[in-house]
Structures are given as C-alpha cells and as structure tokens.
Amino acid sequence: SGSLASLFLLFHTQVHFNTWSKLKDVILEGKDAFISAQGMRLFEYIDSNKQFAEVFHRAMSESATMVMKKVLEIYRGFEDVNTLVDVGGATGTILGLVASKYPHIKGINFDLAQVLTNAPFYPGVEHVAGDMFIEVPKGDAIFMKWILHDWTDEHCIKILKNCWKSLPEKGKVIIVEMITPLEPKRGDLFSNTVFAMDLLMLTQCSSGKERSLSQFKNLAIDSGFLRCEIICLAYSYSVIEFHK
C-alpha cells in the first residue's frame, strides 16, 4: 500500500549516519562523503551488502508506491502509451501499479541483473536486465523516477541520449523528480523538502543533485529533445515530459 516507515528505517541506519558525518569533507574539500565513510560508492555498497540492499530497495519500493498512486490519480500521460519502459525500475513496483490501471500497456522493467534477481511477477510486466549507460529498450514512452537526481549532468545526458535513440518519432520521456524553486521561502514545506533532498544527494551520491526547471530544460535540449514541460505535481514531485 505504500509507507514512509521503510524510508525512515533507511535514514536511521548506521550507514547513513556515518555518511552524514562526512558532510564537512564534501563542503570543505570536495570529497565524496559515501566513499569517505564506506570505502566505495553508494551503488557499489548496495551490491556488496545484501542486508543494506534489502533495506534500501524496500524503502524505495514503499515510498515509490505512495508517490505513484498520487501520480496515477492526476496524470493522464499513460493513456496513449502501448509500450512503457521503466529505466531503473528496480523490482517493478511502479510498472505493476501502472499496468494495473492501464492493462493495455506492455511494461518493460529495466534494471541491472543483480537488482532483478528477486523481482516478483506483475501482470503485463517483463523484467529486462541491462545497463542504462549502454542501451535502453525500445518503447512508445520511457519512464524514470528518482533516477536523474543520482547523477551528474554528463551522466544524465548519456542516459537521456540512449532514451532518445529508443523512442519513436514524437515519443516522450516521463520523469518524476523534485524541482528546486527559484526563490526558496523560509518555513515553506515544499522548499524545505526539496533542499533536504538536495543535501541527501550531496551526502549519498556526491555527483547527484536536485535541479531547477531551467536545468531540466538544458538536459532535454542537450540530449536532443525538442521541449521539456511540467505536467502536474504529486506531493513534492513534479511529473515532467521530454518530447522528441
């Protein structure tokens, strides 16, 4: 049903506490906080520590369920899609929700092979292993939630160019991410949430960050897309479309 409990548990693991303690090194010396704390990058650590991986993936799945239920209430962009590829879709939670509402959609859940090992069966969803930095499966539309904020602009452009190649003429990428406000307001819940997430990216993925609308537009243009637009808002998350 979706819950914040697993996310709360993730944020209170010793792994997270140790990484936050290295924030000073990031700001003053430009170091990678996660490497300083754990000796390797976040996603390498997830691959090497089964217990932490279970906590991490459960937190992502449960929180994603909450957000996606809201997205599916207000976003109509899936109605004309026949094949939807979820890039970095983990165990397929999101596509399972989308396919349950839109059973005409063929869902392709795309992630690394080790992530898909325990992926459950969802009607209408096929699990496909691969690397988004090399190639992305073809589809009418490509979906990404909480993926781009993990990476530098250069990495994002590489991913998005692979998406562009796999889309038909007038295809689209559907992105769910936070958008940083131009003028943060003191005491404003939305601003506080976005910038707290930005700090989280600074400590957990030193190459990651939350972005402004203009930064998303730059990513779209630099990747070959014609336009970028915000379609709707689900809690603190914007649903953004890049059109080919």
UniProtKB/TrEMBL annotation:
Keyword field contains Metal-binding: no
GO MF annotation terms: O-methyltransferase activity
GO biological process: methylation
The entry's keywords: Methyltransferase, S-adenosyl-L-methionine, Transferase
InterPro entries: COMT-like, COMT_C, SAM-dependent_MTases_sf
Protein species of origin: Noccaea caerulescens
Keyword Nucleotidyltransferase found: no
Membrane-crossing segments per the record: none
Lineage: Eukaryota, Viridiplantae, Streptophyta, Embryophyta, Tracheophyta
Name recorded for this polypeptide: Caffeic acid 3-O-methyltransferase
Residue intervals of the O-methyltransferase C-terminal domain: 20-225
